[in-house]
Amino acid sequence: MNTKQSNFSLLELDRIIEMAWEDRTTFDAIKFQFNLSEADVKALMKKELKFSSYKLWRRRVENSKTKHAAKRPSEIDRFKCSRQRGISNNKISKRR
């Protein structure tokens, strides 16, 4: 990771880690929002997580069909849930 990529606020860092853990959030979505490649995300996760958590996450990502856009079913063509507000704040809309 270069120095530009390590200058995230705590809130941004938490969001990147959260997005990396989410099964349906692709690395492309993280790249779009934070300009981090898959390798950068992996390096960030290795740096920020406990080693056992990192290994668990890596195993989960490698077995995921939704984490990589090329492996996703073609009918999934969005970065976020349709009930979700702006991608930057990730607040779930209230259902009435």
From TrEMBL:
Q: Disordered: where is this region? A: 65-96
Name the residue ranges with Polar residues bias. 85-96
User: According to the lineage, what is the superkingdom?
Assistant: Bacteria
InterPro entries named among the record's database cross-references:
CHP03643
NCBIfam families the record matches:
TIGR03643 family protein (TIGR03643)
Protein name per the record: TIGR03643 family protein
